Amino acid sequence: MATAAIRPITLTAPYYLNLFAKETKYEFLKAARNRMYSLATLGFPIMFYLLFGVTNRHIGPGLNYAQYLVAGYSCFGMIAAALFNLGAGVATERAQGWLELKQASPMPRLAYLGAKVLTSMLFGVAIVTALVTLGIALGGVHVTVLQVVHLTTVVVVGSIPFASLGLLLSLLMPANAAPGVINLIYLPMSFCSGLWMPIEVLPHWLQKIAPALPTYHYAQLALNVFGYARSGATLIHWEALAGFACLMLGTAWLVFTRSEAKA
């Protein structure tokens, strides 16, 4: 009986691009269908903006609060998208054995992590789009196309350190504790960094602690789009985020290597 010859797969750049695109597509569909994840990352920033942004328009001299919170809540939602998708998501899949199955498959590990990071970024774009739309429609916010593009770029690129933090947490936490631990980390950091209100209204001791937090530098980059950032060079904020990402990735690599050696 004649059998069809099996043609070898050529591992070219288009092959890997197609693989990354498919993995990202299915990861995005899975995240979108996960109501707990999609409602938490999209619903909370929108709900808070409707409660505090739309109803507190034009408060304070030289400050359009509705515009300020477009930047603040965009960062707040993007941090949640990165932390929960990488942190809680990987921890859950590790506990269910799904991560082990992925590792046994011929798919590159980078595609698995890259798909989760890209999915978080796509949610970040959706959050910025929703908040800008609400700000224009209900908050009396005036923004230019250049500002929207700038804000989206800052929010998406600046989320990489928080995805790195999520990856580290996923290696350290059991799945059932992951959501609680992440909330204990990112909610206080968001509050102390001025994502919910101008940092000048916080107690002085909190204002001194804030520059040590990555969320502070992330917020300053986003607020700079509308001219609400505190004085200081933009490069310093990018350097702080890059240093934090390297620290988290380096620690995650050490933890992963030690766990593999013990296995």
Automatic annotation (TrEMBL):
Cross-referenced Pfam families: ABC2_membrane (PF01061)
Compartments where found: Cell membrane; Membrane
Keywords per UniProt: Cell membrane, Membrane, Transmembrane, Transmembrane helix, Transport
PROSITE patterns, alphabetized: ABC_TM2 (PS51012)
GO CC, one annotated term: ATP-binding cassette (ABC) transporter complex
Transmembrane regions: 36-54, 66-90, 110-136, 148-169, 181-199, 235-256
InterPro entries registered for this protein in UniProt: ABC2_TM (IPR013525), ABC2_TM_bact-type (IPR047817), ABC_2_transport (IPR000412), Nod_factor_ABC_transporter (IPR051784)
Example of a GO MF term: ABC-type transporter activity
UniProt KW Membrane keyword: yes
Membrane topology note: Multi-pass membrane protein
Segments forming domain ABC transmembrane type-2: 32-259
Family indicated by similarity: Belongs to the ABC-2 integral membrane protein family.
Name of the protein in its database record: Transport permease protein
Native source species: Alloacidobacterium dinghuense
Origin organism lineage: Bacteria, Pseudomonadati, Acidobacteriota, Terriglobia, Terriglobales
